[in-house]
Amino acid sequence: MRFLALLAVVTACYTNAAVSTEDNEHGLDAFKIWTAFPNGTAITASDQSNLFECAEATRTRIDPDTKSVTYDFYFPSNGESTTFHLKADDSPGSVTFTVGSDPTPYKAVFYYSDYKTCAVEHFDLSGGGKRNTVTNCI
């Protein structure tokens, strides 16, 4: 059963057909999602590659006062790790984040979560363009 659920999530990430790219109509709470998922598996796909890449995500810090969180992402395929520092924005499901020690802010948005088993988030690593966008299913 776990395999089927994963396949459905992968399909939703790959096609983007199951999620809306418009404003978050479901009022998703980014901080509530982070609270629900201390660990996860991220399946990433970028506009530059048709290949899926998996990453293990581990929450290393959570701050309810600032509604922010830090996740370490480990990519087994190349042995690399990176840290994402995320902060919930005022708009539902909207997130501002930085990567590693780079202070450049980027945007992300949650498209779906059941707050129990799945969350679908889209990271824009290009500052608004499409070249380096990554969709994660955690």
- Give the DSSP E fraction (strand runs of 2 or more residues): over 45%
Mean pLDDT score: 77
Helix/strand/pairing category: alpha+beta
Strand order of the largest sheet: 1-2-3-4-5-6-7-8
Cα-based radius of gyration, to the nearest Å? 14 Å
Helix content: 10-25%
Summarize the structure.
The chain is of the alpha+beta class. It has helices at 2-15, 30-36; strands at residues 39-46, 53-63, 68-75, 80-88, 94-99, 102-113, 119-124, 133-137. It has one domain (2-19, 27-137): Lipocalin (Beta Barrel).
List keywords for this structure.
single chain; alpha+beta; Lipocalin; 8-stranded antiparallel beta barrel; disordered N terminus; signal; Calycin; Secreted protein
How are the SSEs placed, and which strands pair?
Elements (H helix, E strand, L loop, with lengths): L1 H14 L14 H7 L2 E8 L6 E11 L4 E8 L4 E9 L5 E6 L2 E12 L5 E6 L8 E5 L1
Protein name: Secreted protein
Keywords: Signal
InterPro entries: Calycin
What does this structure look like?
This protein has 138 residues and is an alpha+beta fold. It has a single domain, classed as Beta Barrel (Lipocalin), CATH 2.40.128. Helices cover 15% and strands 47% of the residues. It is built from two helices and eight strands, in the order ααββββββββ. A hairpin with a 5-residue loop joins β4 and β5. The radius of gyration is 14 Å and the shape is globular. The N terminus is likely disordered.
